[in-house]
Amino acid sequence: QCPGIEPLCLDLADWDATEAAVAAAGTLELLVNKAAVDPFLEVTREALQRSLDVNFGAVLHVSQIVARQMIAQGLPGAIVNVSSQASQRALRDHTVYCSTKSALDMLSKVMAMELGPHKIRVNTVNPTVVMTDMGRINWSDPQKSAAMINRIPLGKFAEVDDVVNSILFLLSDKSAMTTGSSLMVDGGFLVS
Q1: How far apart are CA 112 and CA 180, in angstroms?
Q2: What are the residue numbers of the active site?
Q3: Which PROSITE patterns does the entry link to (predicted)?
């Protein structure tokens, strides 16, 4: 649907391969970062490290690469990190996920502060459950989904387009004065 957009598929935990792939992609002005659900008492060191590597470390690294390119070329830009409503509200059995998404929100605020003088805006989009293929599989059971949907004033989960449209807004000039913000795409979950 969007000519000129080329996704890069790679293991973001491999910093060297990531740096090579992003460098080979050429000039970038826009970046979207989208990358473990465990009960607190069952979190293993390996699960923690994997989630930190993907949900936090990879975003930091790819953003550094792209921001350095933007600055070197004197280009303004926009970075949108896909976070979650779970960065703002504790969810049972989501220890590492909630924690890494909270860290991602703060990383985005610090990036906004430090990259703003270079005319690079940084924001997050924080959706509720999104009805991707995986979301439909994990949340299709009405007994499981009822408790979450009942806390969403709009009474439904997000669709992929809800998140995509929010990202497109934050990448566009229509949000030229928006940086360091978290755009909740949660149907009101956090106000309930």
Answers
A1: 5
A2: 97
A3: ADH_SHORT
- Structure token pair of residue 94: 């989501």
What is the side-by-side order of every strand in the sheet holding 120-127? 30-33, 77-82, 120-127, 182-185
Q: Where are the domains of the chain?
A: 15-185
Torsion angle defined by CA atoms of residues 179, 152, 35 and 116, in that order, rounded to the nearest 10 degrees = 0
Q: Residues 11, 17: contact at Cβ < 8 Å?
A: yes
Give residues with Cβ within 8 angstroms of 176, minimum separation 6: 121
Contacts of 161 (CB under 8 A, 6+ apart): none
CA distances (Å), origin 19, targets 3, 38, 52, 94, 121 = 24, 30, 18, 30, 21
Token representation of residue 135? 């979301």
Q: What's the fold here for domain 15-185?
A: Rossmann fold (3.40.50)
pTM of the model: 0.87
Is residue 130 within 8 Å of residue 163, measured between CB atoms? yes
